[in-house]
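Appendix B, example 12.
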Amino acid sequence: MPNLKDLKTRIASVKSTRKITSAMKMVAASKLRRAQELAESSRFYSESLSFILSSLVGGSKDSSGLPELLVGRQNPKVALLIINSSDRGLCGGFNSSLFRSAVIWIKEKKSKGIEIKLMPIGKKASAFYKRSDQEILEKFEDLNTNDRQLEVSEQVKNKIIELFESNAIDEVSILYNKFISAIAQEPTYKSLIPLEQSDSKENSDEENTSSFEFEPDKNELLEYLIPRNFLTQVYGSILESSAAEHAARMTSMDNATRNAGDMIDGLTMKYNRTRQAVITKELIEIISGAEAV
């Protein structure tokens, strides 16, 4: 028979845990609204800039004259994968689903003879790949504020250009959790080098075959837009990942709070039954003793 004191201690412990998870849920919910606004506003800007560049690529009659930073190199040998994870845990399957998706992508690239190098963003990705045999070029952590997120985006952008121009990498892709809703996040890839073609652009044959006149010079324009696109896409992926993280944590803490409530109900029922059994046993002993006298 369970000890009543142990049951009371367990009930108190679970109640304390429920208070913590409930508070964490409310904190995540309060942060989610702001993060969602930032992610959705940046999404329009990043998609628009990507569309402009893909229009330039599609509208150019001679793609061989375009910068390699835009169209990539032929027969790539080394691919860089930037992985946006969280700095903290307690967010359900947010990071694990991301890492599973990365494993599949890495296997596909390696099957084509392409070497993989990683650039993790967030402590969880850094810790996960520290134990693997994948080469980590640089890691970025502690993305707690919007200023820090923008600073990291600028650093990643500069690192991409530096590595590509030094021939250390030939391709660049970003993997992040895209914010879909408060209960749904989707691991998403975005290719930076070569430039990922806009879906809406691909669906428009007229726009794909149109010719463009550049003012100023085409190369001068692209020289300005390409680094700006890197910064925008990286920053947008960080904002998307941040919103998705808060949503995942809110959902996870809500489930944990509900489970704690169910556990408290079960332990309380067990406590009452045990207490009743103890009282019944004591009454039987008293009656038995009285009858013996």
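The chain has eight helices and five strands. Residues 29 and 198 are 32 Å apart (CA to CA).
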